[in-house]
Amino acid sequence: MEIEALSIGQYSFVQNAYSFGFAVMAAATLFFWLMKSEIAPAYRLAVTITGLVTAVAAYHYFQIMTSWGAAADITSGEVLSTGQPFNQAYRYVDWLLTVPLLLIELILVMRLSQQETIKKSTILGGAAALMIILGYPGEVSETGGLRFVFWVLSMIPFVFIVHQLVVGLKGSIDSQPESVKKLINISVYLVIGSWLFYPIVYLFPLVGLTGGAAITALEVGYTVADIVAKAVFGVFIFMIAVRKSKLEGETKPVSDQS
Amino acid sequence: MEIEALSIGQYSFVQNAYSFGFAVMAAATLFFWLMKSEIAPAYRLAVTITGLVTAVAAYHYFQIMTSWGAAADITSGEVLSTGQPFNQAYRYVDWLLTVPLLLIELILVMRLSQQETIKKSTILGGAAALMIILGYPGEVSETGGLRFVFWVLSMIPFVFIVHQLVVGLKGSIDSQPESVKKLINISVYLVIGSWLFYPIVYLFPLVGLTGGAAITALEVGYTVADIVAKAVFGVFIFMIAVRKSKLEGETKPVSDQS
After folding, report:
1. Does A118 contact B at CB distance below 8 Å?
2. Is B27–A93 a contact, with Cβ atoms under 8 angstroms apart?
3. Percent of chain B beyond pLDDT 70?
4. Where are the transmembrane segments (chains A, B) (predicted)?
5. What CATH number was assigned to the domain covering residues B3-248?
6. Inter-axis angle of helices B8-35 and B233-247, nearest 10
7. Which residues are CB-contacts of B102 (< 8 A; sequence separation ≥ 6)?
8. ipTM of the complex
9. Which residues, including other chains, have CB under 8 Å from residue A178's CB and lie 6 or more apart?
């Protein structure tokens, strides 16, 4: 990435987007964990993992923000490279950990049988990890050809996950209480909708979008997609957990009944 | 270690692996400690120690990552030594503390008699500490001969521990409830499987594997082995604790029933 292609305004805008990303992820984490004790024990694992996803994302946004700051010197009034490369790989390191986990939190909040939970978590989590691992070599490759090959390879587990979410989970979603069915469907479409952004921007360099505006759109877009897929999605998981706690008569945690 | 033997890609890949290691260990720690209150009191000691192991590992991964960053300057487009040596000893400091503890968490989650617990923890913990202490002089020695001598010495407690886990614990594992027997066996083989990596890479320098690719394989491999032996192993310990809590009718923690 050519950081000198950015104007001061673009450079600062991206930095502010990272800072916003960090603040949202950290705040979401604290929210989920602080509220965990208010929901029924059966849903605390899902809500704990929801906070784990945003916690890991908060850490990586902090690292990305630091790396962005170290990559450029703007004291002269323009964006000059310091020679320190901007580490884009933090995103992949983050996704490798968070994407399988966020699919698992969706499975967990549905409270399927133990066998179903383990089976679906393994399949979806494994496919998600494979998708990220296959995307990485293309992201760091210097040639457009390799980038495209790994885009195609990475799209295979991507399409498989979308299919699993829409078709494979249909039966499980149908068996959910009426009052949360809509929330679960929204969560599924939030994941799919925000994920569509990633394979599109991945192709940006291939179609010649490499200037300052493209870099800005890409970095800000990634940040918005991450916030939707992790923090906003997490709020839906939390709401589902709250409603199901109420339905199952466990609104008040056992500890409050003493 | 000759850090200048690495390409920028290799150097960055190792740095990302360390960051991933830190994120996994820190996330695992938070997970175990946040979920501790959800399991039966009898298993909270095991789960607390499980989180302690990953917490200590998170600290050391942070130190290793910082040391790796300070050892090289990559602003010129290639990896140049800053003169600051990369501190490999952090791994040994970490293992000296975490390896005895992770064997103890396995003993604790089996909930043996008090006498058995103390006896097995002392034997396995002591052998593990001895194994690490004997490995260190070979790791820092300049000559291949000394490296090999300490490899052999360190392998004695290593083989003893593997024997204890496979043969010595057999009776205790057989007395466990049917639904967790498989999980305990997987945990034992996770430890043994991931540990096999360490004595193999220890011999790398002896067979002339000292280039950039060997250093990368070694550092990334250590990180993966650590993640399996501490975080993944810890998740199994946690799952065993959850299932045994349920079996013993203590799904709702006792402290909440007061």
Report:
1. no
2. no
3. 96
4. 17-35, 42-62, 89-109, 121-136, 148-167, 188-208, 220-242
5. 1.20.1070.10
6. 20
7. B50, B53, B191, B229, B230, B233, B234
8. 0.89
9. none
